[in-house]
Amino acid sequence: MAGQAFVTLATNNNYAKGAMVLGKSLRNHKTSRKLVALIGPRVAETSRAVLRKIYDEVQLVDVLDSGDMAHLAMMKRPDLGVTFTKLHCWTLTHYSKCVFMDADTMVVSNIDELFAREELSAAPDPGWPDCFNSGVFVFQPSYETYRKLLTACMEQGSFDGGDQGVLNSFFSDWATADISRHLPFIYNLSSIAIYTYLPAFKQYGHNAKVVHFLGKLKPWDYVYDATSKSVKGQTSGMQPNYLLQWWDVFSSSVVPLMKEEYSEQPFYR
Amino acid sequence: MAGQAFVTLATNNNYAKGAMVLGKSLRNHKTSRKLVALIGPRVAETSRAVLRKIYDEVQLVDVLDSGDMAHLAMMKRPDLGVTFTKLHCWTLTHYSKCVFMDADTMVVSNIDELFAREELSAAPDPGWPDCFNSGVFVFQPSYETYRKLLTACMEQGSFDGGDQGVLNSFFSDWATADISRHLPFIYNLSSIAIYTYLPAFKQYGHNAKVVHFLGKLKPWDYVYDATSKSVKGQTSGMQPNYLLQWWDVFSSSVVPLMKEEYSEQPFYR
Ligand SMILES: O=c1ccn([C@@H]2O[C@H](COP(=O)(O)OP(=O)(O)O)[C@@H](O)[C@H]2O)c(=O)[nH]1
Ligand SMILES: O=c1ccn([C@@H]2O[C@H](COP(=O)(O)OP(=O)(O)O)[C@@H](O)[C@H]2O)c(=O)[nH]1
Ligand SMILES: [Mn+2]
Ligand SMILES: [Mn+2]
Fold first, then answer.
1. With contact defined as beta carbons under 8 Å apart, do A186 and A208 qualify?
2. In this structure, are residues B24 and B53 in contact, taking their beta carbons and an 8 Å threshold?
3. B224 alpha-carbon distance from chain centroid
4. How do strand A4-10 and strand A34-39 relate by DSSP bridges?
5. Contacts of B124 in chain A (CB under 8 A)
6. ipTM value greater than 0.90
7. What is the pTM of this model?
8. How far is the C-alpha of A103 from the C-alpha of B158, rounded, in Å?
9. pLDDT at A236 (0 to 100)
10. Cβ separation of A199 and B129 shorter than 8 Å?
């Protein structure tokens, strides 16, 4: 399946840590697809080196320095910076189909079956469930779609200030057109759902395939104690503890790659 | 459309107030369908009299005193009391199709178009969006379905202790089978969604058709000042203010009926 890839995005060193864990979680669960990381210019060379050990492609996406349409769009709507960067995934036309995954997601199971889906497939957003959550979605790279998305973005902006608003306005029949475009919620399980409707999580959560650390606080914002395998200041002992699972992948699969690269372990606290 | 009805449930005088507002909101928006209220034995005669002025049918549902299968089920699972009562709506076989609505819902628009949908149609639950919310659903009365539901309820219980768990386990292919069974979220708009994803509410909320006061605090738990048209202790001035709309229907459409019935206005504070 050389023509298919998982794609993520990291514009800074923190999100790069997320991308490392995501990439490693995909490898640990033996994906047969390619892995692509889009990175912004602020990602340090040291982080890039680690990402290159995990991803098949690490591609610099720099809308500010390019003279193309994205640059123009960016000038008109500077508030939508990261959004424009994310839309760049549609330019990966050397792949026929891709699955975009936020850098704050982690797979807990092989999810290669997602490539059987068509553009645009995504899971509902808890909160406003007639919108899809743009943390995990199946898409088909295409310059034409890319141009249309940028134009829509420039002209109508984003109702939520981010890529989720733009993508939902663009793929506006997602809620009503075709059930096969609805990914099961277990492909984009966010912590918010666990708290909002705990009985459903207890009933269906064991089938989780992708965990999404949606919201302000990301896994890398916590302090982890590798000896006791615990996270400082963490809230109640929710089982299964996805935050600990993230840190487990980070310390067992990512840190060794960092150590190979530098002796002083610059990211690991 | 004599064969079709909106159905609600109230097991006590408080939920009966909700049923009154719901019924009046349906009438105010000129529904052409029948209105049915299922009530429990604890609903006072005074409340029943008011309900009868709004609803075409007010039917006493008393699982505890009946000698049938519901009684048996109830003995085995006393924890599911209100749930068993709600399932009774399937016994309304003199209608060919019905829309069940929680007593804590209110329509803000005519929704007769819902009768074009088939069993079981419902809107996604914000929180765990692969479950439907059981506050508004289209169903087809049938003794056979009723018996099967009771059996499922008795044997497997409810994963959330209520009717929503039972119904989601029974109609388990809702999330994946047929997009036409997904009611748009605006047919069951709950306040929780407004807070969780405010930009989406600002974008799509003006199309709201049914408001659902899901959660612990119900409209009738607030204290309303009819002179200033304000609710005591109310949180931030969310626009549109559905809570005030509920109280407006209550004071303008329900209170006059209560006054007709009794001089001392027993429910109105
Ligand atoms: O400063 C940023 C913010 C976001 N992102 C990327 O955009 C995605 C969406 O942002 P985020 O996950 O923070 O939003 P949430 O899922 O919490 O709404 C991230 O996962 C990253 O892939 C990024 O690279 N840098
Ligand atoms: O003591 C009760 C509890 C519930 N109900 C009925 O069951 C529905 C579901 O309960 P509720 O709306 O309180 O649950 P929520 O929507 O907040 O989850 C109510 O709207 C009523 O129609 C009732 O009649 N008496
Ligand atoms: Mn995210
Ligand atoms: Mn309710």
1. yes
2. no
3. 22
4. parallel
5. 124, 129-130
6. yes
7. 0.93
8. 36
9. 57
10. no
